[in-house]
Write a structure and sequence with these properties.
Elements: H1 2-14, H2 23-37, H3 39-57, H4 65-79, H5 84-101, H6 104-120, H7 124-131, H8 141-162, H9 165-185, H10 191-203, H11 207-220, H12 225-242, H13 245-261, H14 269-280, H15 283-300, H16 303-417, H17 424-429, H18 433-451, H19 455-460, H20 479-488, H21 494-501, H22 505-518, H23 523-531
Helix pairs in contact: 1-16, 2-13, 3-4, 4-5, 5-6, 6-7, 6-8, 7-8, 8-9, 9-10, 10-11, 11-12, 12-13, 13-14, 14-15, 15-16, 20-22, 21-22
């Protein structure tokens, strides 16, 4: 108990404090880690779609420029957030095909696609140069809205990138003007409207209104994974600024999961989540996520994303190394303490083991003594029962002999009183000692078998079937059985046995030897097994 308490104190002392995420947040982070492990599955699905589209383009002579334009657009959309170089390539192919078709609308559409790719990669000057070549006036409202929205985003991004008091405010104002133009062309009940208005309100620091717009995208519409990630990412940033860290991590984790499932490599949710977790002390997960964010950025191939991730990675990695070094130092001290505790445990275990062994030996001794005592008690009980039976038997026998002797004496007295001396010999002959002795043996047999009803079967179990001794009836014994019956009740002296049975000592030895030689038991064990035959 004391050892366990000491270990608890050590763990409390040596473990660095880490903010513990809520159960829901922790399960989301676990789901994110699982999604990252399965990212190759999602990537392969996207690559398969790309392969199918490229397969159609192999027979370029069989498809019209209009069909080529459609396929290039689909390939651009697959690569847009997946790989910068390929997205740029297909945006350029869209422009070339649009020129072949001599279609100003499609050419404007292609320029907007290229501008979006340049903007996502952080190439703001190039993006603005591309957008400035667009003449929105003759275009459909949908393209005008896309153009104004891209211009708004370009200036908003420039304001954040420049971080200059004079130019930032000018960029923001220009961005707002373009945003208002786009919003005027968009239907208020569309996802695009809420997304653009939310961005405008975010830049204008109308936090609650912006948060409501992005929440509406999730609640009112059926956003794609990429659109969901954009809205959840913005909400996560709002919650973090409010100090609601658990909710911020939850939304950013959901955004990162959506990005991973959509194979979005230019997203910032995973990078931002890593920063949140680093600030809360969860350095292991922060390091795991920032490494994956860097891998995604390198795969996407845009310098701006790699620079953003690379700026955070050394901070997290450095802190993680510092933490690891601190943990290592604490572990050294912990290892020393645990070693000392282990030595103490071993010493105590040795002492306890020795005491247990002594207790086991004492218990074994007591058990053996109890067993022996029980055996002695059983033998005493058996002996007492035998004595009781034989005392009763003896009194009965003596009583019968006294009666016989009294009758014999009275017969003699009558003959003498009548002076019939010649009839005394006849009276004497009426006393048949041989018959009396046989009656004595039969009486012994009867009382013995009463005391040891299982004696004959138990005795015969020491022999093979053909060598077993079978008495003439159930109440008598053979001479061999009678010899060992006497031994069983404690008469071991051969001379005494010989006197009782009126045989010579050699005859007793001969009977015993013949019986033992026929037995399946060793000779030296035979009499011991006979003594183990239970009474009653």
């Amino acid at each position: 108990m004391k050892g366990g308490f000491l270990l608890f104190l050590l763990l409390t002392f040596f473990c660095a404090p880490v903010r513990v995420a809520g159960a829901g947040t922790d399960s989301l982070l676990h789901a994110l880690s699982q999604t990252i492990q399965n990212r190759e599955t999602y990537t392969e699905q996207k690559k398969e779609r790309i392969r199918e589209l490229k397969q159609v383009l192999k027979n370029v002579g069989d498809i019209s420029p209009q069909q080529q334009f459609t396929i290039y657009n689909k390939l651009y959309n697959e690569y847009r957030t997946f790989q910068y170089d390929s997205a740029f390539t297909y945006a350029m192919k869209l422009q070339q095909t649009a020129r072949q078709l001599n279609d100003p609308v499609k050419e404007t559409f292609s320029k907007l696609k290229l501008s979006h790719t340049l903007l996502s990669s952080g190439m703001y000057k190039e993006a603005l140069d591309s957008l400035n070549t667009v003449q929105p006036a003759p275009m459909p409202d949908s393209l005008k809205a896309d153009y104004y929205a891209l211009m708004a985003r370009a200036y908003y991004d420039l304001s954040g990138y420049t971080q200059d008091r004079y130019y930032t405010s000018r960029y923001i104002q220009t961005g707002e003007n373009y945003a208002d133009s786009a919003l005027a062309l968009l239907s208020p009940n569309t996802l695009q409207f809420y997304a653009l208005r939310g961005m405008k309100r975010e830049i204008a620091l109308e936090t609650e209104k912006a948060k409501a717009d992005f929440q509406a995208i999730i609640d009112k519409f059926n956003p794609t994974l990429n659109q969901y990630a954009m809205a959840a990412n913005s909400l996560g940033n709002y919650y973090y600024k409010e100090g609601n860290v658990d909710k911020a991590i939850e939304m950013m984790a959901k955004a990162a999961i959506a990005d991973m499932k959509a194979s979005v490599n230019e997203g910032v949710a995973l990078m931002t989540l890593a920063e949140f977790l680093y600030n809360t002390g969860d350095e292991n997960r922060a390091y795991e996520y920032i490494k994956q964010a860097l891998e995604n950025a390198e795969y996407y191939g845009a310098k701006q994303r790699k620079i953003q991730v690379a700026a955070i990675l050394p901070v997290i990695e450095g802190e993680r190394l510092t933490t690891v070094e601190g943990q290592r130092s604490r572990l050294v001290v912990y290892a020393v303490v645990v070693t000392l505790l282990s030595v103490l445990v071993i010493v105590f275990a040795f002492i306890i083991f020795r005491q247990l062994r002594q207790l086991r030996e004492a218990k074994q001794t007591v058990t053996e003594s109890n067993t022996k005592l029980q055996e002695v008690n059983e033998r005493l009980l058996e002996a007492n029962l035998i004595k009781e039976e034989y005392i009763g038997y003896s009194f009965n026998m003596y009583s019968e002999y006294i009666d016989k002797m009294e009758k014999f004496k009275k017969a003699l007295d009558r003959k003498v009183m009548a002076k019939k001396y010649d009839e005394l010999n006849h009276v004497m002959k009426s006393l048949n000692l041989k018959k009396e002795r046989e009656a004595l043996y039969l009486s012994f047999d009867k009382i013995f078998l009463k005391l040891f009803p299982n004696f004959v079967p138990a005795f015969n179990s020491f022999f093979k079937e053909e060598d077993r001794i079978i008495p003439k009836d159930e109440q008598s014994l053979t001479i061999e059985l009678r010899i060992f019956a006497l031994i069983r009740i404690g008469i071991n002296d051969h001379e005494q046995i010989a006197r009782i049975l009126e045989y010579s000592v050699n005859t007793i030895y001969t009977y015993k030897s013949k019986v033992k030689n026929r037995s399946i038991l060793p000779n030296e064990e035979f009499e011991k097994r006979v003594m183990e035959i239970k009474a009653f």
